[in-house]
Amino acid sequence: MTTTTEETLEWRVTGMDCGSCAAKVRGAVERFPGASGVEVALMTERLRLHLDETQTSRTEIESAVRGLGFGIAAKGQPTERPKGAFVLPDDAIIPLASAPEDAAAEDATVEESGWHQTTKGRMLIGTGGLLAVAWGIELLAGGGLAHWAFVIATLLGAAPIARRAFKMALAGMPFTIEMLMSIAAVGALFIGAAGEAAVVVFLFALGEVLEGVAAGKARQGIRSLASLVPKTARVMVGSQPREIAAAHLQVGQVVQVRPGDRVPADGTVIAGRSSVDESPVTGESVPAPKDIGAEVFAGSINAEAELRVRVSRAAEDNTIARIVRLVEEAESARAPTERFIERFSRWYMPAVVGAALLVAVLPPLVGGAEWSTWIYRGLALLLIGCPCALVISVPASIASALSTGARHGLLLKGGAVVEAAAQTSLVVFDKTGTLTEGRPQVTDLCAVSDDESELLRLAAAVEHGSSHPLARAIIARAEGLDIPPAQDAGVLAGQGAFAMVGGLRVTVGAPRLAEAAGLLPPNVARQLAGLEEAGKTVVTVFTTDRLLGLIALRDEPRADAAKAVASLAEMGIASTMLTGDNARTAAAIGAQIGIAHQAGLLPQDKVTALQALAKGRRVMMIGDGINDAPALAVADVGLAMGSGTDVALETADGALLRDRVADVPGLLRLSRATMRNIRQNVALALGLKGVFLVTTILGVTGLWVAILADTGATVLVTLNALRLLGFRPSSH
Ligand code: ADP
Ligand code: MG
Question: 58-68 pLDDT, tens per residue?
């Protein structure tokens, strides 16, 4: 949907600690005319939507969100208010330390400044103080006076909550935790349980603070990625380095990177030779040698000697910034389980309210039981009704998993991908560049006329028009030779390349091309078969009427390919290699790695082969992200493998940044662990509710246990999700 008046807008929304908060924000802004495509990401605190500003203004959106008690600022502006400029809104009726509007605005600083400086923190201190005073009065004066002290403590503490509940009800969301809380607190006052009501209000405030701290921890996981890039850079002005902010570096500037420094920007080495630890960016722990012309990533660490680097990307689109953005965006691609839970909680809340009503009313009416007992139990049920723990169970686990993945060079674009990956039963690999190094070397030259350098020169001339790894290998081998110019060059995807060289039309390509042209005599065919059985890829070089010769190349399997395929098998996952190479070469390489294979496939054949394999099972496809794009798109999960290349990052459902096959089982392990974590979380959330549901109805537990059960479960679920931050995909 793109009309000229519509714009995509983005805000940072703070104060969303509870899973249902995201749904609240979405619900509040979705109602506006002209607002569509609303995305709310809980962990990254982002709100994004398309807005037709002729119908609804930005400020209307902002005040709606603020009205619910969240902080909001257009992307790029700080959400925190400057110190000293703390303004109470005109309609502030809240007798506590501050208005709820400001609550969220300051929660952005939870991680940095400590919980007690947030408004939720002050609410906790305020309600705690009131409770203590009331208890003091009970001890000293007792009786009636104490009762009223508790009533006042409850009312003061519950007022901001009730106000939020009211605003949300006006925004079309009557069933919120705030509403349940307010009814329960006020209801308890009516049945004379003032002391307990005050405790409930205090525990609610405590829960909010704990949830905020836990959610802040999960967010830090993602943000810490971005903080890997140094703040300053030493830019060369003439021959002198000068220190400037890394964010201000411009493309083309040259920076000095001393040994031990972090590289401040993506760029190309123009002087020096060193080894660079790229583990912060790609997760690869073996330092990579860097020489003139090599690419370096912002955030990696220069290990040995000084380097001069020419900046190739501005700060906002360097590799690490794009990884962070990817992980953030991934978060709003919700997993199917998450969607299900959201739908579930939509009817769950009203159902709980109905059940609470029945519990409060039926036994006294039907069985003549005592009213106050059953109203009390009904109120406790209301508190059990908050689905916070349940709703946060999925996004918390997914956010942890995504940031753990990113730290190990495994990028996944969202919960849906994690969920699909966890169910994978077959992994399909592309051969060249994925299972093999992708750097073939010319091993044999067989010229029909015995002039091998002539064969190589013609082949290299043709291959100048191709970017295929085989082409690069042939050109590399011809270095130093005098290459004739070529005209009208073209490629036959997955088959070869051709061009006019010195008045001859020369083709370099798969043997089947020469065979189809009738240019492959039996003795050459036998020689060719021998080379292929040795695991070499053979290309034929021919003109329109005669064969010039054969060039054999060998691309070594990656060192960890065999082991990775074996560990997939151990996990019960089958693997298959698809290749455009011929059957004999494929068989030789396949045997070396221990993998099933299908050979001789043109790019479109790979798609049909994949579709045939996908019958009845979940398939993950790993390719190099460039010529395998169609096959990657067809697979349930398509992953690009390649060290931080542009294409690899943006195509497919995810990317493996390190050139390691072992990252495939690693990623599957992480996905499975994540789904396990989610199942634990759902079980924990629902289980605790179930237990306290029963104990409440039986009258074993009361109001404050009910509220503890909810906030406690939320905190447990978040803590459990945080365990994933320490998951190591490579070990098991
Ligand atoms: P893979 O499936 O292993 O990635 P491709 O589909 O890219 O392989 O290529 C399949 C075959 O086509 C190669 O083994 C080679 O015989 C031939 N071929 C493709 N491109 C070229 C080229 N530029 N020069 C020579 N041969 C080529
Ligand atoms: Mg390929």
Answer: 899 998 888 88
